[in-house]
Amino acid sequence: MEAAAQLALRLRAAANDRLEGHEPLLLAAAPILTLLAARALHAAAGHVADRGLRTVLITLVMAALKMVPGVSAYIAAQKSKVVEQLQSGSGSAKKNLRTELPDVGVPDRVIDDLQVLKDKDVKWQGKCSGTVYIAGSESDGHFALINRAYSMFSHTNPLHQDVFKSVAQLEAEVVAMTAALLGSKEKASGGQICGNMTSGGTESILLAVKTSRDYMQSKKGITKPEMIIAESAHSAYDKAAQYFNIKVRRVPVNKEFLADVKGFRRCINGNTIMMVGSAPGFPHGLIDPIEELGELASQYGICLHVDLCLGGFVLPFARKLGYPIPPFDFSVKGVTSISTDVHKYGLAPKGTSTVLYRNHEIRKHQFVAVTEWTGGLYVSPTMAGSRPGGLIAGAWASMMSVGLNGYLESTGQIMEVSKKIQKGIDDIPGLFVIGKPDMTVVAFGSDVVDIFEVNDIMSSKGWHLNALQRPNSLHICVTLQHTTIYVEFLQDLKNSVDTVKANPGPIKGGMAPIYGAAGKMPDRGTVKELLVEFMDSSC
């Protein structure tokens, strides 16, 4: 001990002699500056790890260029031109807007004025990808039924459960019937499936992410949450990440365009709260390997959300009809939540979706309870406080009216037409189908022609398809609206491909140059700015 003490004294004396000529302030500041430098290096390394060295370098170069006099103004001018072109292509420019209330109300004119505005909408019957899922005209048949149900309950609000008990019951029944389609009656589900209705798939996803975050914080104490998604997962997960301060780890899809389970495993760490699987994914209509993701979630004790916004009212019936549908619901161990839209293939009015959880312990983290408000005690189940009871009634009326037999029949029709469209596209020289579609979304691209130029020609024929990227492609989401018009679609598509082959190059007013440039532009920050500028000028 004595020898150690003497050694410490000698070391202290040597250090003092060595530092004697330095400024005390510098000596005090050196450790702080070293710590700050280390933190900066750690942050930079984190940025590189998350975004890639190439993306970080491009961002830095673009930031430096914008500091050069005149460059920033030039970029702004070019962005303005692109935004104007986007507006002209989408018809989103705001014109002739009423900005003040009429001095005297005009009740006799209101419906006529609405009809005038409605008549300016594009013809959507049968020519839109997705969009309208119910067959027929909006004024009769199933449309008339759900519209009548809505009008009966248009004054109701489930926030006031003590007043509108009927709506509370209708919501509970919609949730229970939807859960039954997705495995709640299976022993493997645990028998506690519960949930709520929401305004759409995005709110269902937002709630599932928020709930998973808070549940994992209570379970594991995670305060810097991360979630793992495939690059094909819906953009609503990025929205949730921005809203709820969650880091996204985005994993490239595998060669089959499915979620890469090995890639997911590599991203799991102590901050991981959840993973996401899609059934099917919006871009290509492919079902991710939910069983494998469930095993991974169970192994690491994290949440797994299955996005069934598109597939919830198709896959259960397609399976009954004999289509080879892989496992996707609460019968899969590890699945903790599911989002399912009723307003798509459930044929309900727009603005109706459900979010479901494996048990009440998880769902409780969805709710917001406030105890210190002077307005009294407050608790709310979803993001909205007030909610339209009419939409809940419309969803209930749709499900009860269609029934199991009706959903089986409609699923059979759209699955059959989807397969015919898939084969028809395969038969068009120059086109190829992406992956092996599991459901009613068929994505296709081309190695021969510019697929976005094909899209412009299709748009000129009245079709409204979805433009995709990575790879550049289009998709059609098949609905009951297409069952009588798919032959025309395939013929128009073939003719459009032939037109582009014969006369390659963009057409006047087409969006192909913008889509093509956006896909190739290395600075994704500029693309993001373009989108924000477009949205700001459009709404």
From TrEMBL:
The modification N6-(pyridoxal phosphate)lysine is found at residue 344. Its EC number is 4.1.2.27. It is an enzyme of class 4 (lyase). One of its GO terms (molecular function) is sphinganine-1-phosphate aldolase activity. It is a single-pass type III membrane protein. Pfam families: Pyridoxal_deC. It comes from the Eukaryota. Keywords: Endoplasmic reticulum, Lipid metabolism, Lyase, Membrane, Pyridoxal phosphate, Signal-anchor, Sphingolipid metabolism, Transmembrane, Transmembrane helix. Its main location: endoplasmic reticulum. Its cofactor is pyridoxal 5'-phosphate. Pathway: Sphingolipid metabolism; Lipid metabolism; sphingolipid metabolism. GO terms for biological process: carboxylic acid metabolic process; sphingolipid catabolic process. The keyword Lyase applies. GO terms for cellular component: endoplasmic reticulum membrane. Belongs to the group II decarboxylase family. Sphingosine-1-phosphate lyase subfamily. This is Sphingosine-1-phosphate lyase. It comes from Lolium multiflorum (Italian ryegrass).
